[in-house]
Amino acid sequence: MSINVRIPTPLRTLTQNQEIVEIQGSTVSEIIDGLEQTFPGLKARICKEDGELHRFLNIYLNNEDIRFKNGVSTTVTEGDELSIIPAIAGG
């Protein structure tokens, strides 16, 4: 099954400036791997070497942070939408 993934502006240089891309997979991890296959270099911007998300980046599945679900093992279904959101800090 394929789902839509919303790409944040700083990462769009890796997706030929596409805001939304369609990727096949049944878990968030598979979607991330699909992103890497389609857009080489993207996974390193999203995940650490162990496959976990970078601390400064959040992924939402239908408006829910996957860290409060099963992390990158969270299951996705047809019609779901993933949003990659860079953390914002400052003071």
**CATH class membership:** Alpha Beta
| CA radius of gyration | 12 Å
Query: How much of the sequence is in beta strands?
Result: 25-35%
Order of helices and strands: EEHHEEE
Q: Mean pLDDT, nearest integer?
A: 94
Widest beta sheet: strand line-up: 2-1-5-3-4
Helix content: 10-25%
Largest sheet: 5 strands, mixed
Low-confidence stretches: none
What's the total number of strands?
5
Shape: globular
Structural class: alpha+beta
Question: Can you offer a commentary on this structure?
Answer:
With 91 residues, this protein is α+β, with helices and mostly antiparallel strands. The chain has helices at 28-38, 42-46, and strands at 2-6, 20-24, 57-61, 64-65, 81-86. It has one domain: Beta-grasp domain (Ubiquitin-like (UB roll), Roll). It has a 5-stranded mixed sheet with strand order 2-1-5-3-4, covered by helices on one side. β3 and β4 (64-65) form a beta hairpin. The longest helix is centred in the middle third of the chain and has 11 residues, at 28-38. The termini are far apart.
Brief summary:
The protein is of the alpha+beta class. It has helices spanning 28-38, 42-46; strands at residues 2-6, 20-24, 57-61, 64-65, 81-86. The chain has one domain (2-86): Beta-grasp domain (Ubiquitin-like (UB roll), Roll).
Give descriptors for this structure.
single chain, 91 residues, alpha+beta, Ubiquitin-like (UB roll), five-stranded mixed sheet, 2 helices, 18% helix, 25% strand
